Amino acid sequence: MERQERLIYLDNAATVFPKPDVVLRTMMETYQSLGVSPGRGGYDLAVMASEMVTDVREHLCRFFGGDDPERVIFASNASDALNLVIQGMIEPGCHVVSSRLEHNSVLRPLHHLQEQGLLSYDLVGSDGEGRIDPEDIARAIQPSTRMVIVNHASNVIGSIQDVEAIGRVCRNRNVTLVLDVAQSAGLVPIRMRDWGVSVLAFTGHKSLMGPTGIGGLVLAGDVDIRTTRFGGTGVDSESLVHTQSYPYRLETGTLNCMGIIGLGAGLEFVEQEGSDATRTREVALAKRLALGLAEIPAVRIHGPSGWDNRLAVLTINVRDMVPEDVGAILDGDYGIAVRTGLHCAPLVHQELNTFPQGGVRFSIGPFTTGDDIDSAIAAMTEIGGVR
Fold first, then answer.
1. Which of 217, 308, 285 is nearest to 12 (CA)?
2. CATH no. of 21-272
3. CATH 3.90.1150.10 is the classification of domain 8-19+274-385
4. CA–CA distance, 316 with 239 (Å, rounded to integer)
5. What are phi and psi of 75, to 5 degrees?
6. What is the pLDDT of residues 265-289, one digit of tens each?
7. Can you give the pTM of this predicted structure?
8. E-strand spans in the chain?
C-alpha cells in the first residue's frame, strides 16, 4: 500500500487536530486587537481584555453547569488543574479514593504526596467493560477520606463512568468529588451541579477545540482550595499575602490571553456543531474501524464490547509485534498517526494485561473521514497479515 500524501491523524485523544479554521482566525484577529494584559491596567484596551476573560469564564460556567463564574479558574491544562486541586485540598493524614483508570496527572501527584507522608490513597478497579462500580467507591471511603477523584472517560478505552451515581455516593458520605473531563468535555453533556461534582478539571486542546496550553477548574460554591502558588494577580498589590478571593486565589501572573480567546471560540464551535451529533458521528466511525480490525486474526481489540457510554477510542495489539513498531510502520509507510505505549495511564494497561508494552491507540476526531478509517483498516490488514 502506498503512503498517503495527506496525514491521516488518528491521535485525537491526545490533541484534536487540526483545529477549526474559525477558532484559529478568531484567535489571531482578537489577539491582534486585544492582546494586552487583562486586569493589569485601567486603560480601555486592558478593560476590554478583562471583559473578554470574564465572558469566557461565564461561558464555561454555563457549559459545565457550575455555580459561579468567579469560581472558574484558568490553568495550563487538566494536569496543571488537577495538581492545583490535589495539592491545595489535601491535609496531613487525609485519605483519597481514585481508580485504576486514571491518567498520570492524578496517579503521580497522589503517589508523590503519599511518598512524602502527607496522604494515603486507594484505587478501585473496574469491571471487564472499563466501568467503575459506585459501590466499590463507597466501600473504599474511610472517615479520613478528603476526596474522590475519577475521570469521566478513559483515554485508553473510552469507557464513560456513571458520574451521577458516583456523585450520590460522595454526597451521602460528605466527600468532595473531583471529576477529570479532559476526554469527555465537548463530546458528552456535563451537568456538574446535577451530578454532585464539587470540582471539575478540564483542558481546552481536545474536544473543546481550543489550543494547547489552556485548561482549568470549575469549583462548586462550597469548595475551597488552598493557594499553593503565589505571585502577581493585579489586585491587592499592596499586600504581601496572596489574595484569597476567587478566581485570583488560584491564578498567578498574566493569564494566557490567546489561549482563553481560542477556548472561547472553541466553545462556540462545539455548541454550534452540537456535542451529541459530534460524538455520534465519531462513534460511528470507530465502530466501522472496530469491525474492520476484528476481521484481522492477528489483531486483539481491548476495551468495552459495546459502544453505549463510550467515546471513539480504540486500543489494540498485533500478535508478536511491539506497539511502537506498529505505530512506526503506520506512520512511515502509510502516513497514519496513532499513539502507542502506555498512554500515560499504566494501571489501565495492567488491567488489560498489556503492561508494560502498552498498545496501539486509534482515536477518532471531528475531522476524521470514512476514507481515513478505510485506509487505516487496509494498512492494518497488511501489517497484521505478515505475522
1. 285
2. 3.40.640.10
3. yes
4. 55
5. -140, -175
6. 999 999 999 999 999 999 999 999 9
7. 0.95
8. 8-9, 72-75, 94-99, 119-124, 145-151, 176-180, 199-203, 215-219, 299-302, 313-318, 336-337, 339-341, 359-363
